[in-house]
């Protein structure tokens, strides 16, 4: 895993709209795309050419990360359980017992059980309804162990750790008798259950004490998560590299990391190819995006510094762009980037925790729609680097055909 510093200085934004004259571009735009003079686009420090995705998979953790990204596609989205629970929280991928511990995932007390049972990898997703006075939350994690026996032992030990404070009581789940679920106040419950080589963890919360409702909430989540895991077979780690790391060269089409280290995020653990279901965990509006993915025929998502979605056709790409651009009450639409009349940009009122960004642009070319990100400066202004990224990403898509 590679890490690098984040540079926070951004150049002041340019709000002017200037569309270049049409000229021949690499690739063939379909009817409905406005003409773009690719050669005139201002891409800043970026090279406006496709670049190979060649991850450095020389350590076991990098290998496990590939399989963790695939597993994310089988993690139930919170909006499938309760459509109101859509405000994004932390999303994480794990590659061993040590990696599950952080301020936003598992406490230190769970590490020993994970390590003693040889945790291989896992995924974690958290959302709330965004209402502090009527808070609902749902955290779901799936942890993979080498054997069914180790997953069962881990689930028991995780439950024991959870119940070390003696003020907790069990919450029976009639439909999931093998689940170990407990609560302190009948508002929040934490549960663990082994399912094959996996341990499913559910941390659920309701606005007011209601033991029966809490049991139903947790039970429904566990039931759906078990069913989702039954749709897949764990890939033996020795076989992971037999799977394509860049199917149909979709990663080749995505904007690489900034050469000047100005990306808002740190690290590249989430770089890779995702199923649409897996990428829902990174989306701002998962229910709306799920519908758009289905209707637009999205079948593949690439996640580098730029995020590329492959739809059925141009119409589908524009449909996904519209869904991506859904603005919240206090979000602000930004001017169109110079020379990209079909691009759209948004300044978010709240920073996204997954990549520490609060501004993004979407560009469309052919059946692809791509997202590029930036972080506003101290004064709240978005620098021209966002427009440079949009220009570079468009040029890369155009030259990929």
From TrEMBL:
Quick check: keyword Signal in the entry?
Answer: yes
Q: Which residues form a coiled coil?
A: none
Ordered alphabetically, the record's keywords are: Signal
Question: Source organism's superkingdom?
Answer: Bacteria
Q: Which InterPro entries match?
A: DUF7373, DUF7373_C
Q: Does the keyword Signal apply?
A: yes
Ranges for the region named Disordered are 154-182
Q: What is this protein called?
A: PknH-like protein
Species whose genome carries this gene: Nocardia puris
